[in-house]
Write a structure and sequence with these properties.
Elements: H1 3-7, H2 10-15, H3 18-46, H4 53-76, H5 85-118, H6 130-136, H7 138-177
Helix pairs in contact: 5-6, 5-7
């Protein structure tokens, strides 16, 4: 393909537009540095065991990817916006509430089990058995299921919103072709 053909294509110009390339580069470098410091170096210097740096990066970019889906789907199907912006907001709040419930339940259960496993009798034996610590954590498991249900409901709403956006675009394309 010759350069002349490529130059007349809109995507080629946008791909090489200095503003777009510069914006993406700045966003990448600012994000990578911040995430590297907050998720790896600070906890390491503090001597705190933290879950994987890679896992935190995956979670962060998963959120970015969901936003990218909401941004790109209408454009790919020739629409001005998604089927329902209200459903996007509903998905956001369900996912946020679900995540907060899940994280808080894990945090509280971790503290509860840690305190139970540190409790000892006068003779040095454990005061609580493993089974007792699991039984005491039952409420946290219920909250985790509830948080997961909130999150899953949000994802189903996203799926519905994407389906309706693409379905409407397909109908409009069929009417325009006829």
């Amino acid at each position: 393909v010759t350069d002349q053909v490529l130059l007349c294509m809109g995507w080629y110009r946008r791909r090489h537009d200095s503003m777009v390339v510069g914006h993406n580069a700045v966003g990448f470098f600012l994000t990578a540095g911040f995430l590297g410091i907050m998720y790896y170096f600070v906890p390491k210097q503090a001597g705190r065991p933290v879950y994987s740096y890679r896992l935190s990066i995956v979670h962060f970019w998963a959120l970015i990817s969901i936003g990218a889906v909401y941004h790109m789907i209408p454009r790919l199907f020739g629409k001005a916006q998604m089927y329902s912006v209200g459903l996007i907001n509903t998905h956001f709040w369900l996912a946020t509430i679900g995540t907060v419930l899940y994280i808080c339940a894990m945090w509280v259960n971790g503290i509860l089990q840690g305190l139970m496993w540190r409790a000892v009798n006068e003779d040095g034996s454990l005061k609580y058995s493993f089974v007792e610590s699991v039984e005491a954590s039952h409420g946290g498991y219920v909250v985790r299921v509830l948080g997961g249900a909130f999150f899953l409901t949000g994802m189903l709403i996203m799926l519905f919103n994407v389906y309706m956006t693409t379905r409407d675009a397909k109908k409009e394309a069929a009417v325009a072709a006829a």
